[in-house]
Amino acid sequence: MAVDDVATDTRVLSGWSRTNRVRGEVLSTPDVEVIARAVSRAADDAADGRGGGVIARGLGRSYNESGQNRAGLTVDMTPLNRIHRIDGDELVADVDAGVSLDALMRAALPLGLWLPVLPGTRQVTVGGAIAHDIHGKSHHSTGSFGDQVVDLDLLLADGSVRTLAPGGTPDDPGGELYWATVAGLGLTGIVLRARLRLQRTETAYFLADGVVTGDVDETVSLHRDGWGEAADYSAGWFDAVSRGRGLGRGYFTRGRLATLDELPAKLRRSPLAFDAPRLFTVPDIFPSGLGNRLTFGLMSAGYARTGSDFTGKVLNITDFLHPLDFMGEWNRFYGRRGFLQYQFVVPPSQLDDFAPLLEAVAASPHASFVNVLKMFGEGNRAPLSFPMPGMTATFDFAIRRGLDRLIADLDRRVLDMGGRLYTAKDSCLSAHSFRLMYPRVDEWIAVRRSVDPAGVFVSDMAKRLDLV
What's the whole-model pTM score? Predict the structure, then answer.
């Protein structure tokens, strides 16, 4: 198969969880004109009632089928990876959508510049960050990724390119299309380029505090009392495996970027050094049953003992923000069957219901070791953006028999609490539950159809959630 003399190839595609694998046609090119022609051809096919549509894909770090399209074309955006300009006076980075946050940070930090929103890994593209409106440990102080965009260029289904911005542009006066594109799962068009807001920093290090909690009540109280809100960044790990009092205990850190005079002498010599080594790449040798209650119980007990209370500790980027980036391909630990990451957010008024939910997880045969908990601030205008005021928690479950029953129970509990799941992580939510969790979905669909009435942009996830 070819698109205007640029050959596509057939690849096996999946999300980071290694589930929902499909074989699909992939176009990989840095040529924007070729991408535009591929979209135009897909639009012509859709108008004739043929073809399977098109979707953009970044580094494949979403945990689901949002970046794949088994019936049509998937556009690999990673070749479109030029950093056009980093302006230290205007504090703006002008980048292609295929630029990774890792590459951007490596270019910006030597200039004393910092990207305010970084998720749990730097191995995501700018386009993917916009499509899922990613967040990080700083949400309560900076908002999410869509709040950091100055403007972006969006390729539409009709082949035109519009410039969009949060406050509106001549192409999008009210900003509705911009906010439909943020967290829009790539279904309004293909983000080609974006200008991102940066901030100044004297160092590439954090000044952090740490605290250990003994059980779920202490963990909830710590966050209800606003411990993390006293710093720019805050998050931590909690125990979802232990029985009895140890369930819900945690190790939490908060912090801010350190100033030059706060660094020890040896770090002041290169204060902006990007200290983010990759120690090793996980081989693809682990059996799917390795992540079970026994192994994760031992790991949870061991990790809980490593935590300690501290104040004013200097940590590098990977230690503080991206500990999993020490390991390449860490998802292989779960084996070839993969895993399911379950992330939800519930309002502040529902924090007391976290303990019963956690007890339900601990009582099930499904164990999770990689668990993260943090607080969100106010959300933004995007109808499908995940963050809202409240507490968000994450579980990682190895795929095994009966997991669907636990997930159905968790979905019910989250809905009863007025919460919702994160679209970058969800891989099995029903269309009905999605609509209950995201009540503005019809508003989003109306904007999407105004620029793509034939449904040219489509993914396997969009079909599952009935968004096409």
Answer: 0.95
Q: Which two tokens stand for residue 106?
A: 């490596």
Beta pairing partners, 313: 208
* pLDDT given for residue 4 in this prediction: 56
205 close to 257: Cβ distance less than 8 angstroms: yes
Bridging pattern class, strands 420-421 and 190-197: unpaired
Distance CA 148, CA 123 (A): 18
Neighbours of 298 (CB within 10 A): 12
End-to-end CA distance of the chain: 25
Task: Say how far apart CA 350 and CA 416 lie, in whole Å.
Answer: 10
Read off the tokens for 57.
């894909």
What whole-number distance in Å separates Cα of residue 75 and Cα of residue 11? 12
Q: Which residues contact 60 (CB under 8 A, 6 or more apart)?
A: 13, 14, 15, 16, 67
**CA dist., res. 190 & res. 42, Å (int):** 13
Show the domains of the chain with their CATH numbers: 83-201 (3.30.465.10), 206-427 (3.30.70.2520)
3-class secondary structure, 91: coil
Question: Tokens 């019809």 — which residue?
Answer: 442
Strand duo 250-257 + 206-213: pairing: antiparallel
Task: Write out pLDDT tens, residues 85-141.
Answer: 999 999 999 999 999 999 999 999 999 999 999 999 999 999 999 999 999 999 999
Helix (H, G, I), strand (E, B) or coil at 330: helix
Rg (CA), the chain: 22
pLDDT, residue 6, reads 61
| Residue 4, token pair as written in the block | 């205007």
Local structure of residue 172 (DSSP, 8 states):
B
Q: Per-residue pLDDT tens for 208-233?
A: 999 999 999 999 999 999 999 999 99
Helix (H, G, I), strand (E, B) or coil at 260: helix
DSSP for 8-75, written as a single string: -EEEEE--TT--S-EEEEEEE-S-HHHHHHHHHHHHHHHHTT-S--EEEE-SS-SSSSTT--TTSEEE
β-bridge pairing 22-28 and 73-76 = parallel
- Contact present, 154 and 147 (Cβ < 8 Å): no
Q: CA-CA distance, 238 to 251, in Å (whole number)?
A: 7
Q: Residue 30: count other Cβ atoms within 10 Å of its Cβ.
A: 14
Residue given tokens 């850190």 in the structure block: 253
